[in-house]
């Protein structure tokens, strides 16, 4: 089941196209990471999903239905530009949010605040950036929503808080929840996301599991030989995108997919050593950025 589905979702501001024909699917019980550079359309997408702004074209369904007042209570949201009432304590702020949602039980919010080492008795105006972010996270999850949408959730969190937050995310999803979050911190997405979508200049250029993206990503193999071998010897091997001569006895190949044919081709020469650079999510992201270009 898709918790979030969009069809040709578009948003323009006068002559500026912020989002173009977005077909996004977020499955029930997964963490979906939306990647992209600043200005790619991530925040616009999230705001469209929660009905803060309206699309220029296309459609959105949540839990198989169009957005309605009844669905809003099933969604938690953390904006990227979180604004708090500085005079309210954390506990007062959570009670205020609970009243808006008709959800008076602060049990889950209190438990999460304790896990994140957040003092709910302090006024929001006294909190550091990291603790303000923690309070925003707590309010997003505090009413036990079915779907949580987070815009750059780890911004300002220290490493210990990030680790605890990521652990909580996995527990939340394992208990039946669904998370869609945006980020440009690639290591965070790689650590917690089940599937990833990459937005560039308002277009979704790929969405897939992290494992599948890695399996099909461009990787580098460097071969060292006991004698001079020309890079051209590998240019026709299946999967080889580029073969570069780094020295007379060393050739570096960029390859996609299985590398068996390339290794067999290299074994025809006096092979001394082979090293492989396995791609991470940053490599994949940069590859798509280079391939599709970036207008921002």
Automatic annotation (TrEMBL):
It holds the Pfam family ABC_tran. PROSITE patterns: ABC_TRANSPORTER_1, ABC_TRANSPORTER_2. The keyword Cell membrane does not apply. GO terms for molecular function: ATP binding; ATP hydrolysis activity. Residues 4-226 form the ABC transporter domain. The keyword Lyase does not apply. InterPro entries: AAA+_ATPase, ABC_transporter-like_ATP-bd, ABC_transporter-like_CS, P-loop_NTPase. This is ABC-2 type transport system ATP-binding protein. It comes from Lentzea waywayandensis.
């Amino acid at each position: 089941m898709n918790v979030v589905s969009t069809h040709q979702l578009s948003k323009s501001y006068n002559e500026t196209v912020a989002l173009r024909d977005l077909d996004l699917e977020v499955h029930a019980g997964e963490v979906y990471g939306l990647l992209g550079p600043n200005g790619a359309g991530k925040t616009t997408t999230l705001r469209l999903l929660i009905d803060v702004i309206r699309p220029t074209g296309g459609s959105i369904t949540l839990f198989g239905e169009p957005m309605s007042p009844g669905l809003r209570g099933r969604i938690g949201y953390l904006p990227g530009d979180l604004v708090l009432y500085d005079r309210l304590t954390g506990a007062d702020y959570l009670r205020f949010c609970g009243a808006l949602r008709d959800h008076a039980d602060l049990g889950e919010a209190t438990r999460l605040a304790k896990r994140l080492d957040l003092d709910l008795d302090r006024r929001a105006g006294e909190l550091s950036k990291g603790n303000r972010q923690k309070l925003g996270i707590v309010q997003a999850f505090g009413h036990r929503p079915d779907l949580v949408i987070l815009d750059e959730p780890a911004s300002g969190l220290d490493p210990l808080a990030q680790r605890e937050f990521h652990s909580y995310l996995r527990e939340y999803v394992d208990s039946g929840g669904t998370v869609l979050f945006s980020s440009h911190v690639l290591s965070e997405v790689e650590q917690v996301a089940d599937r990833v979508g990459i937005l560039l200049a308002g277009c979704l250029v790929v969405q897939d599991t992290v494992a599948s993206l890695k399996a099909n990503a461009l990787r580098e193999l460097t071969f060292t030989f006991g004698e001079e071998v020309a890079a051209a010897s590998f240019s026709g091997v299946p999967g080889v995108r580029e073969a570069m001569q780094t020295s007379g006895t060393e050739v570096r190949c960029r390859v996609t997919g299985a590398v068996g044919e390339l290794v067999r081709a290299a074994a025809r020469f006096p092979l001394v050593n082979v090293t492989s650079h396995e791609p991470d999510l940053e490599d994949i992201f940069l590859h798509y950025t280079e391939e599709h270009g970036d207008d921002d």
